Amino acid sequence: MEKEMEIFIEAAEQLQALKATLAQQQGSSVRLKGLADTLEQVAVQIAKIPTGLSTVLTKAEAVEQRVIAATSKVEALRDGIPAIVERIEQSDIGKTVDALTSDIAGSRNDLKAFRESTSKIDELIQQFRASNDAVFKELREDSSRVIEAQENVNASVYALRSELLAKLDGMEKRIVSTEQWSEKSIGATGKAFEVVATALKGAGERQSAALQVVQSELDAMRRQEMADIRQELKSISALMLQHGAALEALSKKRGFSF
Fold this sequence. Notes:
Layout: H1 2-23, H2 29-80, H3 82-90, H4 92-199, H5 205-254
Helix pairs in contact: 1-2, 1-4, 2-3, 2-4, 4-5
């Protein structure tokens, strides 16, 4: 009898521990696995309850049969010989009947306690189900928020990446256009100086040489200016490519896709 009650108490304690575990959950899948393991253990303990109940009921029925049989014998003796009845009440048989009566009363108390424990177990199981449903509902809501956040980040990163690529493409086109304009401008300036040099050639070799020096310096300045502009544009282009590569690495590391 004590062993069965220990099983009931152990099952109730494990259900209380399970309730405390559920109260501390944060919606982690690893913790859900621990809860599932604990629930399996509780299920094993609960599965033992019907066996314990059957044992208690069997013992109670046996005690009741013994009490009924003993009581019948005592009543028959009382009806037959009044004098013997008095001796029987004072004899071991009377004491046995009293002991059996106390035993069945104790068994009934045990059954009452068992029913109360079973009721508490049912209540804890209902609380567990309600808590479990709340946990899974929270997990579903968290998953929806995570998916939505990931989609928003994907869209933002894709837009930024597209903007960088568009700027890079525009920058490359402007570089080519500037180079073409520079070449045309240098060519036109050279022709203009040639015309001026030809017109002033009659003024003397010294003036012509001076014009050639001025033309050379102007050409050198234009070439240097274009080289500086080209170098600056290449630096900007390299920086944009570097940012694009960083975004690609971030997307692969975080699991985002474009």
